[in-house]
Amino acid sequence: MNAHLWANSLNSVLNHPLGSTLVITVSWPVLALACLFRPHSVRYVARFLFPLGALLCVMMFLLAGAFLISGHSPESMTLPLGLPDLPFHVRLDALSAFFLLILGFAGAGISTFAAGYFRSGEGTAPGLLGLHYHVFLASMAVVMLADDAYLFMVAWETMALSSYFLVTSQHRIPEIRRAGFLYLLMAHIGAVCILLSFGVMQGGSWQFTFDAMRSASLTPFWATVAFTLALLGFGAKAGLVPMHVWLPEAHPAAPSPVSAMMSGIMLKTAIYGLLRVTFDLLHVQFWQWGVAVLALGLFSALFGVIFAGVQTDMKRLLAYSSIENVGLIFTGIGLSILFAASNLRLFAALALAAALIHALNHSLFKSMLFLATGSVLHATRQRSLGKLGGLIRSMPWVAALALVGTLAIAGLPPLNGFVSEWLLLQSFLYTPQLPHAFINMLIPLGAAALALTVALAAYVMVKFYGVIFLGQPREASLAHAHDANWLERIGLAWLAAGCIAIGVQPQLALHAVGKSTGMLVGQTIAPDPSVWRIAPIAPEQASYSGWIFLAVILCTVAITFLAVRLLAHGRIRKTVPWDCGYPWQTSRMQDTAEGFGQPIRHMFGAFFRMERELPAPTDLTPRYRVHVEDRFWRALYQPIATAVQRLADAISFLQGGRLAFYLLFSFLTLLGLLVFVL
Amino acid sequence: MLRSHLDVELLKLLAAGMLLISFAMLSTRRTQQLITLFAWQGAILFLSTTLVAHEAGLTELYFSAGLTLILKVITLPLILHILIKRLGAQWDNERLVNIPVTMLVGLMLVIFAFGLAQPISLLATTITRHTIGIALAVILLSFLMMITRRKAVTQVIGFLAMENGLFFAATSATYGMPMVIELGIALDLLVAVFILGIFFFQIREQFDSLDLHHLESLKEE
Amino acid sequence: MRGIAFVWQFGEVILAIALAPLFSGWIAQCRAWMQNRTAPPLTQPYRMLRKLFNKDAALAENASRLFRTAPYVLFGTMVLAAAIIPSVVTDLPFARAADSIALIGLFATARVFQALAAMDIGTAFGTLGARREMMIGFLAEPAMLMVFFNAFLLFGSTALTSVVDNYATHPSVIDPSVMFAAIAFVMVLLAENARIPIDNPATHLELTMIHEAMVLEYSARHLALIEWASSLKIFNYACIGLALFLPWGIAIHGAHVGSVLFALSALLVKLAACGAALALIESVSAKLRIFRAPEFMAMAFLIAVLGLLVHLLLGANTGA
Q: Is residue A268 part of a domain?
């Protein structure tokens, strides 16, 4: 009887995916409100409510997965909320489901970690943190479900506001307040662009539902205007160069689970928005859009990874790495637009699949790395790479799981990062078939830029992992570092399991994105239905099998180990390190973070704006200082800020302070309105 | 037809060799090596002109090829060699822009040249019409070499290499230029090298160095 | 999958593991001949491996698990690469696991593990070697990718077995794109395998070491495995080059024992020639300063891209 009840309810849940998703989405704000009951109790909020939130995330993940696998048709609903003439529309289709899957999976890991992470002394009461956190989660889910511009913007703003409060958790520190302000500013500039874009896309019908926008027909000029505004707006939220300046400030300022959430999920909502607008609402019309997105994406990727190579703060390094990965996703999207607009649908699907899978992968490994830095921060209270080192001995669990994340983000087989990068490179291989004259010769060079970025990413991640976890400790206090507690471990392990699963069985990811690419581009890449390998275009041309990689390497390692033990021996003698016979070895002699990044600094010096203070031979206390700054800050943002300041100063005469003036303004406005309305 | 196929393959190979040599000239650090590369470029030109003459059956192209051999493979490199030995400028070859950037710019120029040449290739009727793009690329790369170098001698070699490229383009597109024009150009080249050699001695006497940035001081103040 | 294919597969792997030190020994012997000195016997690498396996491993006190497992992982990745590359036959079940771009990823995995292991002890040389190795890596990967891109345009596939299977429709060797791709490939091979002009495999001068600096702390069986993995790496690279540019002799489609034996002898002859050519290049080149290495790699990248462009311009237009 009980089983029958369960089966029935499961059935009804699966038959009404949109309704079930809405129920979960509403439960998060309920949880958020529940946090307010005992806001200062860490046990209540962190140990009880956060795991509940994690459970809801898992359910969301399972629902979205079931929706994608079962191939349900899209469902939409009009909610009796909102303004009288502008009710809320929601819709669940393949694209939303895919991004909800990302939200669910990553959110589960992050929430579990956060349950073990948050403690008193974070600057804000845990209850408030829980409130903002769950509202943030809910708003992101609503962004993905929204089917009209109004609900989309409401959810977008809620997302920006709640994340602002999360970023400024430790609001007593002025730098963090500044970072939060910059973040909010860029978020709102982006939101204005998106709003304008929606305004253009309704194409005269004054209906703001997405259905109306789909059927609106815009002239090429207005379509391009809408696309450009959307690219600017969503690019600002995703961290595309040159709108990226807030990312390296906001991500380090926030507490680690929040950074993970922002990097892992929030950036993906921007990707979702761009995909929705370009492919669904604007029906990807011009190949020139693809070239623009591709160029911006490649440049961001290269920019991000080069800057990551010279950072000395571990969270800033990861933030720049996020810029790089977002650039890679945009590269895939740009390729897809190019192919789709040139009617090469199969290759468009390939590029789009690469971009989507990379979005999924990034949410997994970036969140994991940010969470690992959270553990390191809690254990050592150090953020600077110059004061860490050798933590693999005192924090073995975090080190092992962070190793999985590092290998994944470096794009190494058999983990998941490699799958998306492989697919992206495969799609570049088909670019010479594009019919446009100069483009089919220039774009293949983009493949080289992509390979350079991927290889540099491996470099940067070796620096990250090596300087933090390997080598000798650079500070004496690091010997007392403690490992993560069991909740944190579960969160990290959940994400690591995802990385390994997708790496070894990429068919899962391909299957998940298949419906989305089918919806957006009209073609699914047919993964040769084999459990053992994927072959996106044709097995004779290229194939990859994660299983064989993992199995053969593990088997060979095992066999070699046994053979060596049997035929030779396993004796060990512990001694001091050889180091070419040098008598003294201190922890200061190993590479610092700057030292490890020196080749990048030397070769790509033109990208940075660097100030270096070198010690002179006659200095009694030699000192070395290097300050690396973003060129865009000086070249683009400061002039704009000064111009705005000057404009504001010029207009400030209006704020004379005299009451009569203010009343005069109101009076003039009233006159104007009367004229216009009557 | 098999022989013709082989000839076309060889011509493609020689054209690719011309392109490779232009890039090598762009990146080499020693002036002596530069002159050797220039001689090799002349040799390739000689071979390809001979091949085209053989295929198309035009006897005047044989004369052009012979002229190229005498002038560009033997005489001019010899003169230049003696010149730089006297000037003592065999080795140092500084540049204004570093090598990787020069290479990238060169690559962009090649893509540009190839893109431009594609419609022309469709119109021309010679068997070497596909190599017009390469000839154009060689001209542009030699110009780039003239721009990004500091020493005076390399400018001359760049100028000569540009002429090589023009000759190659003429052979590819229209089976060579009228004989009168060719003889005239050859004579011009010879005279130019002599005069420039005299100028170099003067420059060196005046500034004690062949670095061209000294010439910048000759301006109104 | 035919059952006999698995026999060929394992045979090829065993062959690679067994032949790799011999290949390194042969290169050393050719180098010695060209430099007018007496060479150690061809079996010297095997003797050194035996000596190393018999020694006790002297580990630093602060070596972690990563340090001790890295040599095994390195060896494992190189064995997997040997299983994927068609050196003798193309009927390999595991070859479907990776195309040439995945091979680049596999080599990258090996490189990253080696660099991490080098950083583990925390000496100055280990981190120096790791940093330089990663630098060479990120410069060589774009060049390598362009070579394979070229190969894809010329041969229609990035899977090495398909390339070899279709060698009857191979473009001729004097095709400029093929030559450019080959030159670029040789330059990348020199860089990735720590040969002159990028790195001197025999040096122990601290400031010029790259590969040697990373293995400074290893001894005994760990060092033996790493050395074996390095010789396997150059063997694999040589076989990739042969498969792409000189595939004649490799047994294709349903091979039988006769053609496999023929392929084996062809492989030995080709490898001998490759080894001699490599030794020649090493003997006539000088080692570059470390920051001239980017120029070398830029040249390799450029030549590969030129091959690509020349193919797009000449190959696509020509009807012949």
A: no
pLDDT value at position C320?
35
Higher per-residue pLDDT: A546 or A98:
A98
Categorise residue A616: left if φ over 0, alpha if ψ from -120 to 50, beta otherwise.
Answer: beta
Q: Is the pLDDT of residue A592 over 80?
A: yes
Tell me how many degrees the CA angle B10-B16-B20 measures, rounded to the nearest 5. Answer: 140
A384 with A438, same domain: the answer is yes
pLDDT digits (tens, 9 = 90+) for B96-150: 777 778 888 898 898 888 888 877 777 766 666 678 888 889 999 999 988 888 7
Domain termination site, one of A514, A537, A565: A565
Are A437 and B107 inside 8 Å of each other by CB?
no
* Nearest one of A201, A178, A219, A208 to A85, comparing CA atoms: A208
Cβ neighbours for C215, distance < 8 A, ≥ 6 positions apart: C114, C118, C223, C226
C116 CA: distance to closest CA in chain B (Å): 29
Q: Which of A565, A592, A618 is the last residue of a domain?
A: A565
| Domain hosting residue A535, numbered range | 284-565
Cis? peptide before A583, omega within 30° of 0: no
Q: Which residues of B touch A441 (CB under 8 A)?
A: 111, 114-115
Same domain, A529 and A637: no
Clarify whether residues A407 and A519 are in a common domain: yes
Alpha-carbon torsion angle A392, A396, A401, A406, nearest 10: 0
Instruction: Name the pTM for this structure.
Output: 0.91
Asked if residues A450 and A444 have their Cβ atoms less than 8 Å apart, the reply is no
Q: Which of B103, B110, B130 comes nearest C309 by C-beta?
A: B110
CA A603 to chain B, closest CA, distance in angstroms equals 10
Report yes or no: C75 at the A interface, CB cutoff 8 Å.
Answer: yes
How many domains does chain A fold into? Answer: 2
Measuring CA to CA, which residue among C303, C111, C280, C130 is closest to residue C195? C280
Kind plus residue range of the DSSP H or E element containing B155: helix B152-174
Torsion of CA A535, A539, A543, A549, to 10 degrees: 110
A394 within some domain? yes
Q: What is the pLDDT of residue C285?
A: 85
Question: Whole-angstrom Cα distance, residue A105 to residue A387?
Answer: 33
Residues A130, A119 contacting (CB under 8 angstroms): no
For residue A371, give the nearest of A521, A256, A290 by alpha carbon.
A256
* Secondary structure in 3-state letters for A525-564: CCCCCCCCCECCCCCCCCCECHHHHHHHHHHHHHHHHHHH
Q: Closest chain B residue to A436 measured between Cα atoms?
A: B115
- Given a cut of 50, whether residue C318 has pLDDT beyond it is no
Q: Strands, DSSP E only, in B76-219?
A: none
In a domain, A301, yes or no: yes
CB spacing of A599 vs C131 below 8 angstroms: yes
Q: Which residue of B has its CA nearest to C178?
A: B13
Containing C252, the helix (H) or strand (E) segment is none
With 60 as the cut, is the pLDDT of residue C45 above it? Answer: yes
Query: Both A371 and A321 in a single domain?
Result: yes
Residues A559 and A612 in one domain: no
DSSP element (H, E) containing A87: strand A87-92
Query: What is the pLDDT averaged over residues A6-20?
Result: 80
In this structure, are strands A625-630 and A87-92 parallel, antiparallel, or unpaired? unpaired
The residue type of A384 is S
CB-closest option in C174, C294, C310 to B9 = C174
Q: Do residues A559 and A663 both lie within one domain? A: no
Q: Is the pLDDT of residue A17 over 90?
A: no
A297 and A394 fall within a common domain: yes
Which residue shows structure tokens 């003696």? B82
Beta-strand relationship, A572-575 and A625-630: unpaired
The structure tokens listed for A266 are 């929030």
Q: Is residue A501 part of a domain?
A: yes
